UniProtKB/TrEMBL annotation:
SUPFAM superfamilies documented for this protein: SET domain
Protein name per UniProt: SET domain-containing protein
Top-level taxon of the source organism: Eukaryota
InterPro entries per the UniProt record, alphabetical: SET_dom, SET_dom_sf
Annotated SET domain residues: 23-118
Organism in which the protein naturally occurs: Triparma laevis f. longispina
């Protein structure tokens, strides 16, 4: 599948399928070199949403406590979280342009699950059980 050059979203290297946790996760469809693009996209900033309760939205601010939330395009909402040493991707948010880029932080093989550390994992109440597992 090719990516149209004018598209604001590129998730051509990612697919969503059942994960090991009983939900859905994002997985690489091709080998991806460390430092390379995994996915890029845009977000819709939400109103009337409490991201402390809703785990499916992104923090869309660097100000704490965060009161701005967004939903991402493509496969971005299906990346599961993990501990830093297991992470193989990193998301950079461009707040003014309402866009993001996800890059590989290590070599990724086709079929690997794409994981990153949620930036708000430690303080959002909806992620409390993730922090209790330690």
């Amino acid at each position: 599948m090719s990516q149209h050059p004018d598209s604001l979203v590129d998730c051509s290297r990612v697919m969503v399928k059942n994960d090991a946790y009983g939900g859905a996760g994002a997985f690489a469809t091709v080998d991806i070199a460390s430092g390379s693009l995994v996915e890029s996209g845009i977000v819709r900033v939400l109103t009337n949403c409490d991201g402390n309760e809703n785990p499916y939205v992104f923090t869309w601010s660097d100000v704490l406590p965060n009161t701005t939330w967004a939903i991402g395009s493509g496969c971005s909402t299906f990346y599961n979280t993990c501990e830093e040493e297991l992470s193989n991707t990193h998301m950079v948010r461009d707040f003014p342009n309402k866009s993001f880029v996800i890059t590989a932080t290590k070599e990724i093989k086709a079929g690997d699950e794409l994981l990153h550390v949620y930036k708000s994992k430690k303080w959002r109440t909806c992620f409390g059980e993730l922090n209790e597992e330690k």
